[in-house]
């Protein structure tokens, strides 16, 4: 694996990254702050024109961090800020989520992925040929040494996420959006918990504290959980964003208030400009910038492939069911681990989301996946019956190793990448923004 602080490699026609498949790189610096109290302008930053492509939580935080530090930033997206994957996120801020999706033994799960439409991880057979290169790397990344390397990278990127989000929300004027009541993971029994031992062992290895609960302990925290669940793990320090869309919108508003620009335009291409810098092609117009950040989520590959950069992302198509109003059946993020489902309290009701469908960017949503979520929710929380609900599907960009690409593209001066955050975009948005902004504007790549 490339040392943290080295550029993301981007040899023409080659793959980006190193041994783990997703190389976290670039510099780390002070906290991102809406008020700019922990950030500072770098010499010459006022002359730097930066385009950020993608206005999800990752792109908005990067644009904000660069603007606060003195750059002149334009944020591009075909849709409103936060209206894509960030909108449907379960809102979990989970610093302890250091276990990658591929763990030792994952190979034995491949048949179920292909055949069980109701499984928590599903890959439609029709999509298998396109997904095969990613799947091969996914299985290879489950080797013990690679799992540990990925966990180390994720732990570095997650570090301090909860404190940073709390401070950022206060500075933005929306402190009420951060709920710090911990996360509760529940299992049917001790045997189910034992199957998940590898992920908890990794958390222990990286110093995260948690408490094992029996049925009585679960009910003390969440009295409404069904009798199916008898063993729990409680992470008291974790947090939840109660309205991910409103949070992203607050970031975008403050970015604009500081002089940043948002363009509702689809960027079709990025190319090096003669004499240095970059050109973005949008709506038939080429616009010049000194530096470009590609933070377009699952669509990042489409912009980078013409430049010879292949991230090899797959869309983890995630679904949610939002119960509008009705009873607030949980008071914190609750994870139904056997179903890979998050149940979270939101400002507008209860959100039930999760599972993974590796189905690409083109296939239409599969309503059966959302129906499955609704059935499980009603089974665990029958008091939700009769509550109005809506469904959603979005594309979470996933690398084979679960480690995102964060840093400069080697051999492409002025091009930066922030993509592949999978389920953890909310958790890692501010850490990613720090690395990109301070790495770009300081001109040095320092180890965190």
CATH second-level architecture of the largest domain: 2-Layer Sandwich
Helical fraction: 25-40%
Radius of gyration: 21 Å
Q: Oligomeric status of the shown chains? A: single chain
How many domain units? 2
CATH class categorisation of the largest domain = Alpha Beta
- Which regions contain 5 or more consecutive residues with pLDDT less than 50? 1-6, 8-38, 444-448
Query: If you average the pLDDT, what whole number results?
Result: 88
The biggest sheet amounts to: 9 strands, mixed
- As for the CATH topology of the largest domain, it is D-Amino Acid Oxidase, Chain A, domain 2
* Number of separate strands: 23
How big a fraction of the residues is strand? 15-25%
How many individual helices? 13
Report the structural category: alpha/beta
CATH superfamily of the largest domain, called what? D-Amino Acid Oxidase, subunit A, domain 2
N- and C-termini, Cα separation: 16 Å
What gross morphology would you assign?
globular
Give a written overview of the molecule.
This protein is of the alpha/beta class. The chain has 2 domains: 14-86 and 245-312 and 402-442, 3-Layer(bba) Sandwich (FAD/NAD(P)-binding domain); 98-152 and 175-242 and 313-398, 2-Layer Sandwich (D-Amino Acid Oxidase, Chain A, domain 2), CATH 3.30.9. The protein is 30% helix and 25% strand. The chain has helices spanning 57-68, 85-88, 110-115, 128-140, 144-158, 161-172, 190-195, 197-205, 215-221, 244-257, 300-304, 367-380, 425-442; strands at residues 14-15, 49-53, 72-77, 92-93, 121-122, 178-179, 183-187, 211-213, 231-235, 239-241, 261-264, 267-272, 278-282, 285-289, 291-294, 309-310, 314-324, 333-336, 341-346, 349-358, 389-398, 405-408, 415-419. The strands form 5 sheets. Strands 5, 7, 8, 9, 17, 18, 19, 20 and 21 form a 9-stranded mixed beta sheet that branches. It has a 6-stranded mixed beta sheet with strand order 11-3-2-15-23-22. Strand 13 (278-282) and strand 14 form a beta hairpin. Helix 1 (57-68) packs parallel to helix 10 (244-257) and helix 6 (161-172) packs across helix 13. The longest helix is centred in the last third of the chain and has 18 residues, at 425-442. The radius of gyration is 21 Å and the shape is globular. The protein starts with 13 loop residues before the first strand and ends in a 6-residue tail after the last helix.
């Amino acid at each position: 694996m490339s040392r943290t602080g080295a550029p993301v490699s981007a040899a023409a026609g080659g793959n980006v990254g190193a041994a783990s498949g997703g190389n976290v790189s670039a510099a780390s610096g002070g906290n991102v702050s809406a008020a700019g109290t922990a950030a500072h302008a770098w010499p010459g930053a006022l002359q730097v024109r930066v385009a950020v492509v993608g206005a999800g939580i990752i792109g908005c935080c990067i644009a904000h961090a660069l603007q606060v530090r003195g750059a002149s930033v334009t944020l591009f997206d075909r849709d409103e800020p936060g209206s894509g994957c960030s909108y449907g996120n379960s809102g979990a801020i989970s610093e302890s989520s250091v276990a990658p999706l591929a763990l030792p033994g994952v190979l034995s799960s491949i048949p179920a992925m292909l055949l069980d439409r109701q499984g928590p991880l599903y890959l439609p057979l029709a999509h298998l040929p396109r997904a095969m290169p990613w799947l091969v790397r996914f299985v290879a990344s489950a080797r013990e040494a690679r799992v540990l390397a990925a966990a180390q990278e994720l732990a570095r990127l997650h570090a301090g996420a909860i404190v940073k989000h709390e401070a950022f929300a206060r500075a933005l004027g929306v402190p009420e959006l951060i709920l710090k009541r911990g996360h509760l993971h529940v299992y049917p029994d001790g045997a189910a918990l034992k199957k998940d031992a590898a992920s908890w062992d990794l958390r222990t290895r990286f110093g995260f504290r948690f408490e094992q609960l029996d049925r009585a302990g679960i009910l003390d925290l969440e009295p409404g959980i069904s009798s199916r669940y008898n063993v729990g793990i409680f992470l008291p320090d974790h947090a939840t964003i109660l309205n991910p869309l409103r949070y992203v919108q607050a970031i975008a508003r403050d970015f604009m208030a500081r002089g940043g620009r948002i363009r509702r335009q689809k960027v079709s291409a990025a190319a090096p400009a003669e004499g240095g810098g970059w050109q973005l092609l949008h709506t038939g117009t080429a616009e010049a910038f000194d530096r470009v950040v590609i933070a377009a989520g699952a669509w990042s590959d489409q912009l980078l492939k013409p430049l010879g950069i292949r991230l090899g992302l797959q869309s983890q198509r995630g679904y949610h069911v939002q119960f509008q109003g009705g009873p607030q059946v949980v008071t914190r993020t609750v994870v139904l681990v056997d179903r890979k489902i998050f149940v979270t309290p939101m400002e507008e009701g209860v959100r039930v989301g999760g599972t993974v469908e590796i189905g690409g960017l083109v296939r239409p949503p599969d309503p059966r996946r959302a129906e499955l979520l609704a059935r499980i929710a009603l089974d665990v929380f029958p008091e939700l019956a009769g509550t109005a609900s809506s469904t959603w599907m979005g594309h979470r960009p996933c690398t084979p190793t679960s480690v995102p690409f964060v840093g400069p593209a080697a051999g492409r001066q002025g091009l930066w990448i922030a993509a592949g955050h999978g389920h953890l975009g909310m958790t890692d948005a501010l850490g990613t923004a720090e690395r990109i902004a301070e790495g770009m504007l300081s001109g040095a790549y320092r180890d965190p």
